[in-house]
## 1
Amino acid sequence: MIRFDNVSKRYENGYEALGQLNLSIAEGEMCFLTGHSGAGKSTLLKLIMRMETASQGQVFIKGQNLSRMSNSQVPYLRRNIGVVFQNHQLLFDRSVFDNVALPLLIEGADPIDIGRRVRAALDKVGLLKKEKLNPITLSGGEQQRVGIARAVVNKPPLLLADEPTGNLDPQLSSEIMHLFEEFNEVGVTVVIASHDLSLIARMGHRVITLSDGHLVNDGSTL
Ligand SMILES: Nc1ncnc2c1ncn2[C@@H]1O[C@H](COP(=O)(O)OP(=O)(O)O)[C@@H](O)[C@H]1O
Ligand SMILES: [Mg+2]
């Protein structure tokens, strides 16, 4: 599903955020990406969704070489990738329903389908009863679940999350992680960047550890 072949990423200011990274993540896998602040976790996720491009080496997503991909193809790549951010990036001038519907509106889904698909996603995260509310009235954990519903509403085969539990207490954090596991159990490939080592250790999935842009550990334990 994801392959990094000798990938380096140097930002415009000359800083090398990732150096000669080799990595592959299989379809249907669930794994964590960890490492100190500034290790390169977010950069790696940005390369996968082509928010950034590699300075050297190749990134392949489902066999497609992202450095050979034209900008006009990027929206098609993104449809295959659901993304969850720490600060969830919800729109507070519209309802929970409308926030979750956004990716479907962008891809021009049939309006009849939209209601059904949004409600299915909200049901999955346990927020069906809150569809009419403004997300600003929800708790932090609920807001994060709206962000997850929005990320999965168009059933992407790949789900990326960048510090999805960063602002949540331990109980809510594990609930959110179990939600990701449920998506993984139905075949979604899941990659979660997190520095919450105790939570990651408890989950028992593959852990990829970066340090200063280099892969320093890749295994089933920390
Ligand atoms: N747009 C950018 N321009 C220059 N340097 C950047 C940029 N984005 C990130 N960096 C630097 O790259 C390094 C890795 O950042 P990042 O991938 O965000 O790490 P992490 O997510 O592990 O905290 C950091 O030193 C950061 O300051
Ligand atoms: Mg980061």
## 2
Amino acid sequence: MKGNFVTDSIKYVGVDDKDLYLFESQYEIPDGVSYNSYVILDDKIAVMDGVDERGQDEWLDNVKKVLNDRKPDYFVIQHFEPDHSGSVEAFLKEYPDVEIVGNAKTFSLGANYADLLEHKQLVVKEGDELKLGSHTLKFIMAPMVHWPEVMVTYEESEGVLFSADGFGKFGALSIEDDDWACEARRYYFNIVGKYGAPVQTLLKKAANLNIKIIAPLHGPVLSENIEYYINLYDIWSSYKPEEKGVLVAYASIHGNTEVVAKYVAKKLQEKGEKIAFADLTRDNMSEAVEDAFKYDRMVIAASSYDGGVFLPMEYFLMDLSYKTYQNRKVAIIENGSWGPTAGRKMKSYIEGYKNVETIGDMVTIMAKAKEADYAKLDALIDAVIEAGK
Ligand SMILES: [Fe+2]
Ligand SMILES: [Fe+2]
């Protein structure tokens, strides 16, 4: 994307949000996020999606500049979540004669958020086309690729797929980021992760399209190596590990579990394993969730607490359960100063996941790890390596 051009006739009018601390009140976004919106200029003009209310004024300015005194004919709403539709009412106030384009669910769900009734509505369904002039929009339903009303739009003449939240990533566009996959993966697993099957369905439909450009609702417009992005989405949505490697995630109260977790991570690394490391009491949970899905194995270590497991670990395992963590292998280390209970609790989560095996024998540490414990940890480390073969 050069300046605000996606192509000569498709303009970017989205906005960056660099001040938001937590996206969806839970995901830290140190580099911000972008709310993307596009204008297609033709005989008829279509505006593709809105932005979060936080960026409303800047967005309306961008739209106005690109329209250059013309009025939009269509306002296509692909996704009604507030990070895109928070500005819908302001837009309709500015352009009351625009025809809102959505599917039946867009309007029924959207009515819970905004007053759409006084405006013209064009209800589209799977495969419907809307001619703008030389551009033609084809609507493809993508229910539960995050929300039930989601649809994506394929513009045939230039091969642009407007992909809604799909292929989105964290990070404001004005902040340079060479590694698309890192923040796109964190975005995917935390936000769309539960909905792998609907994403697979959408990818099958997309396979019939000649896609040259992907224009998502967050992050950069993708115009090269489209196969690379589609392939990653295929891996992620089918819950296959992306790489061989181990996430060592721990929740330590007084630091003794941390010592053990660090020992395990260091040894695994020395023996050639790729490692991700997460202190669940301090690090952002969404990074740990991302790494749990990225790699094929995980070592979890936690203190016992109130007859269960120290809560940051329970929250993490519960989060993985929400995201339908599956097809992986997990080793367990528990700690308890008098009667360890963490292991039982962690096991109950592991047993609840689909196709997740426990690696080796669980290691129990009583407060500080002793020499005999390190021998057991070494055996567990070997089992983790073996499980990756
Ligand atoms: Fe969304
Ligand atoms: Fe979004």
## 3
Amino acid sequence: MPDVAIVGGGPAGLSAALFTAKNGLETTVFDTDETWMHKAHLFNYPGIRSISGSEYMELTRDQVSDRGADVRVGEEVIDIESDDGGFRLETSVASETQRADGDAVDADGEYEADYVVLATGADRSMAADLAIDFADDGTVDVDLDTETSIDDLYATGAMVRDEEWQAVIAAGDGASAALDILSKEKGEHFHDFDVPTDAP
Ligand SMILES: Cc1cc2nc3c(=O)[nH]c(=O)nc-3n(C[C@H](O)[C@H](O)[C@H](O)COP(=O)(O)OP(=O)(O)OC[C@H]3O[C@@H](n4cnc5c(N)ncnc54)[C@H](O)[C@@H]3O)c2cc1C
């Protein structure tokens, strides 16, 4: 059972997964690979001068997988139910589904998770199915940590922005969700701070 299930593997979802997996939470990302990043070329992502969106996706998926997340490309989440103290997810597996490391996915299509991070881009249908609060402008209503009106359910990236859509903002939202989850798990404010001696 994943501690954290992430629905959508664009910049928002992968960023959330990077932080939670790196810090010891069992993390699964489900992604149908329709990210806008495949249409983009980034010149405005700080620290990276120029990169195609698809190359960014490949690098980031590898980075997140290296840190221990299970990144399932081709597995669509079709239903989420909020249970007492957790969530149940149902997925549909495309025949070509594979993990970022190239292994085939052996999925049973049903999962439970303590936390769910929605990161489905501008597609807010999954959020609407969950009957969470929406803002007047049609975006999903979240607090500064990107938590929705349902405890332990987060919404990140394009779905919480009214047109201010940038990869670095989406990645920041994912990181916010992850730090809030990690703070809840650790029972105090959590900082994912590394120092030069941490580097290999
Ligand atoms: C033409 C174009 C050019 C752009 N250029 C730039 C640029 O130069 N710089 C910049 O910063 N930004 C750019 N952007 C914007 C950038 O691509 C977005 O801000 C960013 O991709 C949003 O990230 P996200 O993680 O919120 O959503 P997305 O990247 O859209 O990712 C959402 C993911 O969720 C998946 N998904 C949806 N529903 C489900 C489900 N039920 N189950 C499983 N998976 C699901 C989708 O398949 C997708 O892979 C551009 C966008 C476009 C369209």
## 4
Amino acid sequence: MAGPTILHADLDAFYASVEQLLDPRLRGRPIAVGGSARGGVVLAASYEAKAFGVAGGMPGWRAARLCPALRFVPGRFREYQPLADRVMDILGDVTPAVERISIDEAFLDVSGSTHLFGPPAQIAELLRRRVREEVGLPISVGAARTKHLAKIASQVAKPDGLVVVDPEREQEFLDPLPVGLMWGIGPVARARLAERGITTIGELARTPSGAVEQVLGHAVGARMSALAHNEDPRRVAGAGRARSVGAQSALGRQPVTRELVREVLTQLADRVAGRLRAKDRAGRTVTVRVRFPGMRSVTRSSTLPGPVATTLTLTEVAEQLVWQAIRDQPQPEPEVTLLAVSVSGLVPQSALQLELPLEADDPRRPGSAPGAARWAVDRSVDAVRARFGTRAVGYLPAAMPRVRTVPDEFRELAEHDL
Ligand SMILES: [Mg+2]
């Protein structure tokens, strides 16, 4: 059975959380964005206000009555989009298959990312931590085998949580939940179902589809009936292209030196780029992951102007990203325990097409001798290996002293369905 590789990530009380982020005096307090005690409509409420029953869509006067300490703020709408975009960028660091469905929520298909970032729950925690640390906002994530389950799981996880739906126990998870959590059941549909005594998803599942269609209309009824039975074949948009090739190396504890980083990345890039070339592919997005002692890890990724598949270019890009990740640490990190490299955003790349431009005078530019030379070297290496095996020839960082402790265990990771 497939794993819970679809994530639904949803910022918590987004507008209200942004207001609390921008104005520390509002933190920990019940606030409403929009409306006033005299009227208007509340657009969003902080969790402190939700605890009093205040909710988005509620008239201001009613919200004020429910929560006398409620503070109304007008909302700085120009701030919302750029912050949400930064969150989406972080999500995009773990998979190219990110389907944004509103300003503050998205589905992700991470089936092609587990080799690089670990199981879905670990990816979800990584994302939640990064959004919290780098943007300052709380985000909840649901992880499941289908979109419907993932979206429900993120709602159940709120505020600021993670829920993973065990693929073996999906119906068990769904049955006791209120129908209102289903994507597509609004207040009107919920009221109509309640009139017929249907309040939980399990009750909806036990009602014949024909009867549900009478209540909700043919199309919606049939769809909700199927969802209540846990039937949801929808894929995350872009998931078909969610392919990447990656490799990682666990290092034990190693002092961070230029030599170590270059040697390990050369070997990783060799594996990744070699596999790309073997499939006549190249990719534009390079992602690295650096793990420090204590299992804390950071990722950095960069989307290049053109696809890469040469070992040397990939090594250089990965090296820049790794140093950037190390430099960005709040405290100096003298040791690393794991390095990983992956390439995504893959496109067909025949051997005759050379690598695309980086900078006009960059030696990696196609047509420039070094760019062409890189391809020629790689192709020769590939040809030798095809005849004599992978170990027959390799890349060693030239003119670099050998590091004493070479990572003895090179974990070859699953290549994705190219
Ligand atoms: Mg939200």
